[in-house]
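Input record (one chain):
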Amino acid sequence: MIDLTFRQKHLLGIEGLQPWEIADLLDCADRYVDLNRRPAKKLQLLDGLTQINLFFESSTRTLTSFELAGKRLGADVVNMAVQGSSIKKGETLIDTAMTLNAMRPDVLVVRHQDSGAVSLLARHVNCSVINAGDGSHEHPTQALLDALTIRRRKGRLEGLTVAICGDVRHSRVARSNILLLLAMGASVRLIGPPTLLPRAFSTFGCELFTDMAKGLQGCDIVMMLRLQNERMQGSYVPSVREYFHLYGLTREKLAHAAPDALIMHPGPMNRGVEIDGVIADDIDRSAILDQVEMGVAVRMACLDLLTRDWRAAA
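The corresponding structure, as predicted from the sequence alone:
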């Protein structure tokens, strides 16, 4: 086992992580990519440990990949159905945390609709907590899998220009990616309609564009975001048709980026809204399915590194 310097108890966000900690996670995940491509994928690294996936919001990719990650490392994995739990009967988040803590899990993977909820829960449990997305705040493992995808396809993060396009205002994926990419030496451009592009993001060190052609000029990575309609209070775009016309990724708009620019999307993907289906399926330019594959490896790395001290003490 290679000695790594990652010594965090929780993974609540990219904010607060040092560049070498991010590199440690990516290096560890890189090795799990190779394992996941073998016929025999299962290890007993987390044998005897319990992982509870507590998802207050629906999920396909994130929940499935966390479940696969835990099982491939040998953990006992429990998916807690919030719809049928005591939370729906009025139990508070803190009471839920204390109840689960009494069952002595080793890792809690939590997705919640409110920003800051996962951090609050982490203060009331003894085990490690992984943020699988909280409101519009952060989604750290998505940013890590995006970074791993880019690094494996481009060979580096430093010096690249990444355009993040669409509903930046409501996107936890955008926030985590901005923090990670800037920390690792990439340049970040944010592109979208003024209503979905808060000026405050310029203080992070990003360039802001409301014109797609100008924003994409010479970019190495084009990362599309979906419209977060479930988080919108009121109307932010005149119509879906006009939004696609101005900000949906088409072959014509992509032509402004670098000739070998990669196309990315965290999913779920709305074809004909934020991206043209032909572009999404371009096997030479699209890294969307690579992102899905990297998600399992990254989540295996997170489970591995966060439990090393627990395993060493056992």
